[in-house]
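Researcher: Please translate sequence to structure tokens.
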Amino acid sequence: MGDLLDLLREKKLILSDGAWGTMLHEQGLRAGECPELWNLTHPDRVGKVAAAYVAVGSEMILSNTFGGSRFKLGKFGLAGKTTDINRAGVELSLAAADGKAVVAASVGATGEFLDPYGDVTDGEMDEVFHEQIGAMIKAGVRALCIETMTAVEEAALAVRAAKRIDPGVDVICTMTFDPAPDGFRTMMGVDPARASAELATAGADIIGANCGNGMERMIELVRRFRAVTDLPLAVHANAGVPELVDGRTVFRESPESMAAGVEKLVAAGAVIIGGCCGTRPEHIAAMGKELKRIRGAG
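Model: Translation complete:
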């Protein structure tokens, strides 16, 4: 397949993948362990996650690089392996995709705050994103998914870094929202209107939301995005609202329940649909059947 935007023009609707953390924990990843290091130490298990989503029909998959910034890896003493970890993560997803899916390499929030909320400067944040994204693009990826952002300034810096390295790379940028009295806002107070405007200015090709909400809330969130932007919208919903059971976080929304929300998501304006926390290949397979039905009806 071609680049992400080419695939979107061809398919109109794209089935993405589901949770990576959930699947890696099933493969044996322990709490507190660095998931991204597994790209080097357990490449076979990481590759299995990517391959599982391709096998159920994902047309776009991410990569095990969400926490691959120098800032995040530094907390594990792994800052010096930033390039190797991100390159390996991209290569594993590309191998699993094997021409059947587009790879949009995952770039997560750094966990640091820009001045004046923190002590990281724009220049320092830019350097961190440039290092991570540069390694990904050099490894051969042609699309990125900058995700789980709460500060639009940080998100915009990541988008600009990507476009500066390679103006032709396709960039998705999704933020994480919580319900608010006036609609939805991120932890840093950003609403869909502001996110849409600033991410478009930064050069994002596709915007939207991931994590934080199940299908029902995501449908309303997409409606609010569609009211303020013409950019393509991507959604990765959680498998419902997280519950703490015996010290473990549990997501109870079934594959059938998530699939039942797909038509409403599409009607609201989403064109890339996948899952986040708690979703597994079964969820993606069910959602994919519904997307196929909608395409056929169109």
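Researcher: Any highlights?
Model: The mean pLDDT is 95.
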